[in-house]
Amino acid sequence: MTISPTSAVPTSFTGPKIYAWHETLERHELVNWMNQVDATYRAEFRDLFEVHFARFDAKLEQRAAQLESKFETKLEQMKTELLRWNFLFWIGTLGTVVALMKL
Question: How many CA atoms lie less than 13 Å away from 66 in the CB half-sphere?
Fold first, then answer.
């Protein structure tokens, strides 16, 4: 005879058999309760994770935008600096060539 937590107390059980059935019933109830608690906690953690992930994602996007704007600013500064040095180099070279031609 199989014992299930949904079956009524069998009248043919006596002594140790009734205790085994009762322990099995209690064990099933405990397992079901633990599964319910686990499902509840999982749902709560899933919701909490989604909220925190959304906040993290928003902060990450904001930080990426800040870094991109800093990078673009720095790149423009480097282009200006390079152009300035390029003109200085060519004017120095042109001055040298003109001076050498006059000799």
Answer: 6
Q: In angstroms, rounded to a whole number, what is the distance separating the alpha carbons of residues 26 and 24?
A: 5
Q: Which of 20-29, 34-43, 71-80 has the highest mean pLDDT?
A: 71-80
- Name the CA dihedral angle for 27, 33, 36, 38, rounded to a multiple of 10 degrees: -80
Tell me the per-residue pLDDT of 44-95, one tens digit each, with 9 for 90 and over: 999 999 999 999 999 999 999 999 999 999 999 999 999 999 999 999 999 9
8 within 8 A of 27, measured Cβ to Cβ: no
Which are the contacts of 20, defined by CB distance < 8 A and separation ≥ 6? 3
